[in-house]
């Protein structure tokens, strides 16, 4: 049955437009094979065609202004090819059936394409060149493919696909482009590319085994990706200034990869589920990364090259003792890394090369590890652990660096090594059967260690001149071993019952 709005539109255009073409073709047999060929040149043209059956063909070309083409096709294996050249063109297509092939080309201003497809194995190719173009598509079925290309200014593309094994590819070049694609089903894939200014891409996938790829180059680009389901993949690449990415994945075995090159980029990623992976690569200055992962077997890897960048990662796996990993590598100055983990069997690793960088790592749970390696000057590390059987391993190389380690609980291990001059190491351990190992190589270094509890062990060594070791052990059955090599070094070791020690020695404020 023909849709009512088509008939209404026909009556309206009968009074206003000339020439007008109405084409109705149908076949009583299974094989229709009807053909429509139309070439319109001029102004205010209007075409409406309806085809029923199988293997029908439409080929239409319009040149002029204010052209409108309305196409209804019912059946299978239709082939439609439409080209419009002029201003204010409209293509409106309704298809029901399977194995259709659509190809549209529009050149001019104020063009609009609206496509609705219901069926399987349909192919849709749309090209637009000009200003203020819009593409809106609603597709339901399986094995559908759509490719949209827009060149010009102020373009908009909305695509919605429901079903399985669907593909969507969108490419936009120009200014003020916007793409919004929604896919619901399984085994769907989406690829979008934008080059120009003020581009926005909002992509949503619901289902499993889905993939999103987006590439943006220019200024003021925004990409937002939401995936709900399992075995999802998100890849985002942005090159330019003031770019922003927001990605959310909910499910298991999901992967998110983000690469940004430019200035003042921002990344916000949330993953909720098991066995998810995240990779972020940034180059530039004043970039920001916010990452949140919940559940077990999570991995977050961040590589940043530039200055004054901020990276904040939080992994939560309450009551689930499974292996989460945060790995951060930074080359540059004035960067800040904040990493938090809760749960068990988790690792935070940071590698930094530069000056005036800050690393803050906090863990709560059991069997967790913090590893930090820094090379440069005036860098600061703060490592805090609360729980059982945790380990801190930190190595600094350079001048005027500061290291702070804080462990509360039992069976902890803290290892700190500093190479250079005027470095400071502050360590606090509260609990039982904790072990601390400190080493400083250079001149004018300071090591201050406080252990509170019982059966704790400390080994501290300094190699150089004008160094200071200050060790306080409060409680029972402690062991302290201090070694200094060089000239004009000082060592202070205090051991005793808690009632005999000045409370200032056991304060968490170590400076």
Strand and helix map with partners:
Elements (H helix, E strand, L loop, with lengths): L3 H13 L3 E7 L8 E9 L2 E9 L2 E9 L2 E9 L2 E9 L2 E7 L4 E7 L4 E7 L4 E9 L2 E7 L4 E9 L2 E9 L2 E9 L2 E9 L2 E9 L2 E9 L2 E9 L2 E7 L4 E9 L2 E7 L4 E9 L2 E7 L4 E7 L4 E7 L4 E7 L4 E7 L8 E7 L4 E9 L2 E7 L4 E9 L2 E9 L2 E9 L2 E9 L2 E9 L2 E7 L4 E9 L2 E7 L4 E9 L2 E7 L4 E9 L2 E7 L4 E7 L15
Parallel strand pairs: 1-3, 2-4, 3-5, 4-6, 5-7, 6-8, 7-9, 8-10, 9-11, 10-12, 11-13, 12-14, 13-15, 14-16, 15-17, 16-18, 17-19, 18-20, 19-21, 20-22, 21-23, 22-24, 23-25, 24-26, 25-27, 26-28, 27-29, 28-30, 29-31, 30-32, 31-33, 32-34, 33-35, 34-36, 35-37, 36-38, 37-39, 38-40, 39-41, 40-42, ...
């Amino acid at each position: 049955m023909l849709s009512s709005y088509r008939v209404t539109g026909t009556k309206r255009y009968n009074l206003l437009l000339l020439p007008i073409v109405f084409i109705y073709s149908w076949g009583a047999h299974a094989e229709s094979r009807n053909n429509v060929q139309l070439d319109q040149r001029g102004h205010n043209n209007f075409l409406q065609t309806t085809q029923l059956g199988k293997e029908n063909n439409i080929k239409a070309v319009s040149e002029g202004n204010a052209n409108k083409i309305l196409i209804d096709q019912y059946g299978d294996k239709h082939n439609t090819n439409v080209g419009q050249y002029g201003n204010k063109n409209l293509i409106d297509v309704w298809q029901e059936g399977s194995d259709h092939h659509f190809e549209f080309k529009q050149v001019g201003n104020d063009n609009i394409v609206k496509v609705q497809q219901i069926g399987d194995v349909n192919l849709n190719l749309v090209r637009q060149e000009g200003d203020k173009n819009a593409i809106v598509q609603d597709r339901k079925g399986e094995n559908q493919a759509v490719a949209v290309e827009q060149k010009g200014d102020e373009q908009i593309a909305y695509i919605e696909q429901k079903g399985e094994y669907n593909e969507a590819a969108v490419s936009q070049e120009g200014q003020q482009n916007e793409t919004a694609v929604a896919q619901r089903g399984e085994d769907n894939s989406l690829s979008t590319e934008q080059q120009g200014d003020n581009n926005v891409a909002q992509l949503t996938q619901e289902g499993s085994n889905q993939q999103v790829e987006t590439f943006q180059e220019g200024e003021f680009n925004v990409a937002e990706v939401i995936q709900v389901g399992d075995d999802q993949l998100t890849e985002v690449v942005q090159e330019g200034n003031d770019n922003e990415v927001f990605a959310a994945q909910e499910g298991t075995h999901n992967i998110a990869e983000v690469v940004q090159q430019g200035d003042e980029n921002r990344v916000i990623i949330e993953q909720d589920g098991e066995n998810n992976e995240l990779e972020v690569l940034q180059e530039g200055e004043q970039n920001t990364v916010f990452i949140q992962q919940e559940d077990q077997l999570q991995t977050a890897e961040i590589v940043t090259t530039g200055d004054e960048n901020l990276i904040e990662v939080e992994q939560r796996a309450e009551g689930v003792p499974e292996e989460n990993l945060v790995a951060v590598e930074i080359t540059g100055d004035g960067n800040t890394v904040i990493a938090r983990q809760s749960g068990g069997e988790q690792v935070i690793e940071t590698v930094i090369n530069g000056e005036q960088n800050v690393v803050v790592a906090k863990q709560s749970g059991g069997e967790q590890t913090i590893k930090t390696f820094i090379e440069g000057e005036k860098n600061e590390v703060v490592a805090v652990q609360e729980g059982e059987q945790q380990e801190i391993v930190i190595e600094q190389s350079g001048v005027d660096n500061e290291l702070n380690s804080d462990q509360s609980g039992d069976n902890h291990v803290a290892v700190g090594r500093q190479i250079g001059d005027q470095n400071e190491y502050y360590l606090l351990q509260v609990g039982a059967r904790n072990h601390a190992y400190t080493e400083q190589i250079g001149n004018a270094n300071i090591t201050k260690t406080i252990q509170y509890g019982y059966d704790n062990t400390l080994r501290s060594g300094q190699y150089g001149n004008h160094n200071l070791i200050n060790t306080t052990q409060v409680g029972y059955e402690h062991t302290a071993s201090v070694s200094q090599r060089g000239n004009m070094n000082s060592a202070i070791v205090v051991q005793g019952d808690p009632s005999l020690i000045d409370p200032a020695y056991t304060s968490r404020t170590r400076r």
